[in-house]
Here is the input.
Amino acid sequence: MKQIIIAFTLTIFSTLLVAEVPTNKHFTISAKGFDFNGEGFIDAGDLAVLKNTQSFTVAAWIYPTTLSVPSSSTIISKTDTFVQLGGVFWTILPDGALFFILMDVNGDRLTVQTAPGTIVENAWQHVALVFDGAALTTNEKIKMYLDGGQQTLSEVGTVVPLTTTPSLNVSVKVGAARDSGGNLNQFTGQIPEVVLSENALNRSKIRLLRDIRKPIF
Here is the structure.
């Protein structure tokens, strides 16, 4: 299967957030006009925002048209051999659950997911993932939001309370996850842009992102 790679546009955050947080901590990967058809993805390069950091936020408007079976629909990833050697992986499972793995190079992992049916096909939904490595419990370390509302998370398997993301020299990808044989778990639908922050944003800022970055639909 042919892989389609498109260059990304990195832009400074909207001026509406300047008063809230430093602009140099926030970036946007733009994919406007790009069709995630289950074969293409955005290669954003080796971004530091998800590399050896104690906190980050990822937020995006998404419109999935097909929830992949039997694999999953990646929103964003920064992984080496499909998380086997560490990385960050955020995806939608075939049952509509949001699923997140943070794994270090030793194989220790922090894995959580929302309830099935969180994400539905053929509808615009705003999703956000927040990691705060300084927090003490899993529910404080990882938070996920759907349309501004915090979701209940369940731990998956043996969870290790990791405090930082791994220092991997691999690309951030929107719409796919890297593995040893290529890029799998690809997204089908639309992700107009992904906002990345080096801060663990709170709910009010997540809702602000939802409102000011809303696509035209």
